[in-house]
Amino acid sequence: MSGLRQLQQKTVARLVAAVLALIGALPPPWLFGLTRMLAAVVFVLWRKRRSVSIENLRLSGVAKSETEARRLARESFLSFALMVAESLVVKSRMTADNWREFVTLKLSPEAERLLAEPGRGLLIASAHLGNWEVAARAVAMLKPMLVVYRPFNNPELDRVIHAGRTNERLRLVSRNERNPMRFLNALSQGEMVALMIDQHVYDGRVQVDFLGRPAWTTKSVAMMHFTTRAPLIFAVAVRKGPLKFEVHAVGPVTAPRTGDRERDALEFTQALTREVERFVRQYPGQYMWGHRRWKEA
Asked: Which domain holds residue 241?
């Protein structure tokens, strides 16, 4: 990498760090007010991502008109901005003693039993809906968690964004890290391994139906489930008010097994995608519509 490129990456990272420190010092009412204004400005100025959001909403059938698509796209921009702001507040305020002041658990009986079972390793699948940072922090209060995340192309920025996100119960690992034993060890020690399942991928994928359109989706969650036989739960954190969330956890998710590993991976991933779809239809304004989810290649 050239020296100029490194300098650019470090400059961007330092600017982001300064902005995060500034907004993190604001009282929550001021922070959320500023967040709403910034989200409105970004919605107007970021034409490409706005267009992608509106098109996704319209073609998915979630929005029944252009007006509704635009309204939900605006809500989606705000939801993402609030997610960032909320995460800054929650990171410094949520503890093992007070986390239930922020979060209400809405668990299926089976999911509740699995989360409470000592020594039971679990796989957690989630999606970019509501506040996935809060979902991870809240569920990790019940059982330690290893979160697989997609790193930024700028390693300096990646370090800044993820600084302070880890603690003794919540650890992060880049999806680029090729060390499957790390996941297996976590599961064998009764911890959780969490992955996002609603982004377009190019490798290790299957094509499922998502909101009536074909979408390339990672099959790594299904393969990990088949290999480890660890039960899999789907979880999301839905925003219910200022710093108030409902964490929904359902499962274990299952699908018929035929012995054909590729076909079984497709069916299992489709079952997971149906859970994503169910929550997206229920809370469309809290989903991240700006991602190009339905790329053809």
From this structure: 3-286
